[in-house]
Amino acid sequence: MQPKTLAIVVTFLPLIVMNLVYVMSATAELVPSCIPYLDGCTSISRAARRGNAIFVFRACMIVQAVFLAGYWLIARQWLNQLAGKALRPATIMCSLGIIASLFLILYADFLGTDGRIYRYMRQYGIIFFFTLTPFAQMIMVNELFKLTKQQHFSPLYIAVIRYQIGVVICILTLGLISLFLSYSGNSTFERENILEWNYAVLMSIFHLGSCLLWGDVKIHISVKQRE
What we know:
By secondary structure, this protein is mainly α.
């Protein structure tokens, strides 16, 4: 799978799946019918953990995690090639992204299981995924922004980088709002769900920028025979 195709998959797969499982659960009357992005009648986990939705969600999120790990590996190599040298922040970005992917697998694997230990595994899995992924995204846009000061980029590159910076700012804003609501005592079930659904969307559409930037990026595999 070439980088552009991979970026398209990691962008749209979670968006399709989380909406699909909600429709499946709402149709089966396992969750209330609403527009979760605006009403917050249920969380993503509640929509995905019962009925047939759990099988769709679990399988697709594990696949998504594997693709995300590949995405961050390519992103590291791409940044290094743009800079013409190995960038330490790119390595940190890649490490955070891969660790976040592992926590996504942990979350998906234990979703729908009973028991206190399993509940903790799910909670820590999603918390670390939702925390580490934006950090990796921030490092990526920061390195791209610094490169724009050192090199000449096309208007498309500049526009996409600005788009990704805007997405990261929105993610940080939602994170701060969630913290404020929690510590001020104004957090409600619906408000937290609204933030969660929109936060997940923002994390996914960040990668849309890579779909545009990686149009000419190719992976070449060469095999050399030992003499």
